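Your task:
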Amino acid sequence: MKMIVRKGMGRAKSLLALLMVLLFSFATYNLIAMIMEHKADGLELSNRKLMRSNSKFHVAVTATDAAYNQWQCRIMYYWYKKVKDMPGSEMGKFTRILHSGRADQLMDEIPTFVVDPLPDGLDKVNIFLFPQ
């Protein structure tokens, strides 16, 4: 009689373990599906907001008061205006960041923001490579 009871208990433990594995798998699947659906909805919402807000790109270019750099900025601004005027263009504003510290002759021609130049030595870049 004891053998029958033990056999029944062994089957019950096996069934309980199987049921727990199935429930865990079901819960994991639903959790992952919910997360994936939430991410997709979030992306859709953010894309819709961008489409409605008609967001634009802001073009910023750093420049000096050198003749060659002024020529480059003129060409760049010319093509910016051409592309901005095209149908469906997402071009926003254009800003020339002049880091000479003083105004130049292009101030009236190209939207410009004048900033002071960095002190000598601060404009150098040091690259550090760390072993992994």
Remarks:
- The first strand starts at residue 57 and ends at 63.
